[in-house]
Each structure stands twice: as structure tokens, then as C-alpha cells.
Amino acid sequence: LHARYVLQLLYETRRVLKLMPNISHLSTSYSKDITICGDLHGNLDDLLLIFYKNGLPSQQNRYVFNGDYVDRGKNSMEILIILFAFLLIYPNNLYLNRGNHEDYMMNLRYGFTKEVSQKYKV
């Protein structure tokens, strides 16, 4: 995805996240399921497999992602782009929690910063 579109996506995602509460309260009493995922660590194949087996996020198919989206794997940016796009489409049905790998120092140490600079040199 071109850097211009990534920046637009990041800007919109930031705007939406700032409007959301720090703590989300979810219940399964009125809906069928909530799929809870964690520790993708830049492995896009894992995210695609989760969506293949459980369906794409939607109003009827809610997801909680418990952080550690980035670092270690080679597709952290792609994972963030997909998750942020779904968050903008379904802000009340997809929840993104922050893990310890969503930290500046962890990103420097485990590779996300390097991945971003290689993919978006601008």
C-alpha cells in the first residue's frame, strides 16, 4: 500500500482510537461469539488463517485482538493495515488491545522499526 494511503489510514485510526474508552466491556449474552486472538507477531499467515476459519470481522462476527501484532515476523505492517481498516469499518465489533510489543523500545529491539523503514523509506 502506498505510503500516502498508509498515512491516511493511520490518521483516521488515531482519530477513532482517541474517541474510544481505555477499557472495553464486552459480553456474549446478546451475541453468538467473540473470537479472541493474540500474539500475531508479524505473521500474516496466522491472521489470514484466523479469518479463514472464523470469518471476517463484521457486526455479527466480533473480534478481540490482545496485542503483540508486530515484531519478529516480516509482515507486521500488513497486519496493522488490515486490523486498522477493519477497526474503521467496524469500530464496535473489533477491539484492539495493546501488548508489550506495541512499545517503542520493543519495536526497536525486535524489528518493527526496521520493517517500517525498509518498506516506507520516505
Radius of gyration using CA atoms only? 14 Å
- List how many beta strands DSSP finds: 3
Any guess at the CATH architecture? 4-Layer Sandwich
Strand content is 5-15%
Task: Based on Cα principal axes, name the global outline.
Answer: globular
Determine the fraction of residues in helical runs and give it as a percent range.
Answer: 40-55%
Cofactor: Mn(2+)
GO molecular function: metal ion binding; protein serine/threonine phosphatase activity
Protein name: Serine/threonine-protein phosphatase
Pfam families: Metallophos
Account of the 3D structure:
This protein has 122 residues and is mainly alpha-helical. The protein has one domain (32-119): 4-Layer Sandwich (Purple Acid Phosphatase, chain A, domain 2), CATH 3.60.21.10. It is 47% helix and 11% strand. It has helices spanning 3-19, 44-54, 76-89, 104-110, 112-119, and strands at 34-37, 62-66, 94-97. The chain has a three-stranded parallel beta sheet with strand order 1-2-3, with helices on one face. α1 (3-19) packs across α3 (76-89). The protein is globular and about 45 Å long. The mean pLDDT is 90. It is an enzyme of class 3 (hydrolase).
